Amino acid sequence: EVQLVESGGGLVQPGGSLRLSCAASGFTFSSYAMHWVRQAPGKGLEYVSAISSNGGSTYYANSVKGRFIISRDNSTLYLQMGSLRAEDMAVYYCARLGAGGAAWGQGTLVTVSS
Amino acid sequence: QSALTQPASVSGSPGQSITISCTGTSSDVGGYNYVSWYQQHPGKAPKLMIYDVSNRPSGVSNRFSGSKSGNTASLTISGLQAEDEADYYCSSYTTSSTWVFGGGTKLAVL
């Protein structure tokens, strides 16, 4: 069974940093591009970042470019978030998107507040 | 990448059928047969209902169906039930090798 489990969310002050992790199991992690999608309170889904299967290619939405860094190792996806702003407050989902279906984690909440 | 366009809300009575549209461009919906639909209940993670335009994952009711014509994809729910009340999002692969989501549609079962 495919499982994605996010962790690392919490309360952080504006301007602070946080690293999210997503532990993957049940599939060959190294064969898939991976993605982060977020959802601000009461809002829709926003595609945030992606990394290719071998980690050699990355993508960032304009809203986070220059502040967030996506990375991966053997079976874990990461999102290093810096210079956090109030508008970054959201539930962050790790997802395996692609042809043939998708899998999502349960999400981790990031709260940005002083 | 601009978000795909969905109606903000739709409604229907139990037993009826409803259709939610999702309009993009030739760079996303129109260019690939990689459109997905998600159902999201409050406080829950999105649940995949349709992938690759018209395929249902195992366990999803056959009351849910998907289709595409040109730059517009559609999700149809037949035999509407109370538990279908939720937010629905479409998503498409894009020419940038990324994914884009629709703004979401709130379905009310009256």
Largest interface in this structure: A-B, 21 and 25 residues
Structural category of chain B: mainly beta
Strand content of the residues of chain A, in percent?
A: over 45%
List the uncertain runs of chain B: none
Number of helices of chain A: 0
Structural class of chain A: mainly beta
Helix content of chain A: under 10%
Q: What order do the helices and strands of chain B follow?
A: EEEEEEEEE
Roughly how many Å apart are the termini of chain B?
35 Å
Instruction: State the major sheet of chain B.
Output: 6 strands, mixed
As an assembly, this protein is heterodimer
In terms of DSSP E residues, the strand content of chain B is 35-45%
- Can you tell me the overall shape of chain B? globular
Helix content of chain B: under 10%
Rounded to the nearest angstrom, the radius of gyration of chain A is 13 Å
Overall mean pLDDT score of chain B? Answer: 96
Order of helices and strands of chain A: EEEEEEEEEEE
Q: Tally of extended strands of chain A?
A: 11
Q: Which parts of chain A are unreliable, with pLDDT below 50 for 5 consecutive residues or more?
A: none
Taking the alpha carbons of the first and last residues of chain A, their distance comes to 40 Å
Count, helices of chain B:
0
